[in-house]
Amino acid sequence: MPVKLYNLAQLVRVNTNPxxxxxTDASQQRIKLYQGQTCAVNFSVFNSTNKPLSxxxxxxxxxxxxxxxxxxxxxxxxxxxKNDVIKVNFxxxxxxxIEPGYYYYSCNLITGDDDNIILYMDTSPEHRGFLExxxxxxxxxxxxxxxxxxxxxxxxxxxxxxNNVDKLRQRGNLHTYTxxxxxxxxxxxxxxxxxxxxxxxxxxxxFTVDTLNLxxxxxxxxxxxxGIYSQIRFKYTQTxxxxxxxxxxx
Length: 250
Prior knowledge:
By secondary structure, this protein is mainly beta. It has two domains: about 10-140, Immunoglobulin-like; about 140-250, Galactose-binding domain-like (Jelly Rolls), CATH 2.60.120.260. About 0% of the residues lie in helices and about 55% in strands. The strands form two sheets. Strands 1, 2, 3, 4, 5, 6, 7, 8 and 9 form a nine-stranded mixed β-sheet that branches. Strands 10, 11, 12, 13, 14, 15 and 16 form a seven-stranded antiparallel β-sheet that branches. Strand 7 and strand 8 form a beta hairpin. The two termini are about 15 Å apart.
């Protein structure tokens, strides 16, 4: 069970009209969202007379944009249940498909009459604010998987496939494995596929991500690789000895 370090909601003020006077420090308005942790942002909406706007029953449309090419990366629509704030929640794996880094965000308010109101950030007359996505998925402890049953097919031995929940894997994540061998001479391949569990795979769907070449080896041997993959497996061929088990962790 990961420790939730970042689940306190940030409070951000937005306005129904462009602001000409900054009411808060810009650094306080920059939203920080965390991969691998639950987090939230509370939006407080003010009208043109600088009064809090009653938001119960309205809908907030929150969007994340790529600043380099203006690509829309994510949209969340939240129905407000309170008059004073609108809370936007993010679960622990919701942002895993977006690279850690800096982005824009925008907000629109949809009224009960379906009026679409552009909301402006409190730090400038712009309708986009700054957002940072931070990778903290390493706080998750992933159990070690033991692979000790290998099936012979076309002169090679194969382990069962391990399903990687790829939304809990950040790009560049480290995978490690340890092989246990007895008098083994041969090659052990760590292989991956982007096809999800339950999908029928063929040999061409798998690609090698790491290789161990061993000669008359008894004991343990370690390897590692990085990346996001839906499933992994291990394949080996030998001229002598055996592989008793492989321990895998990511």
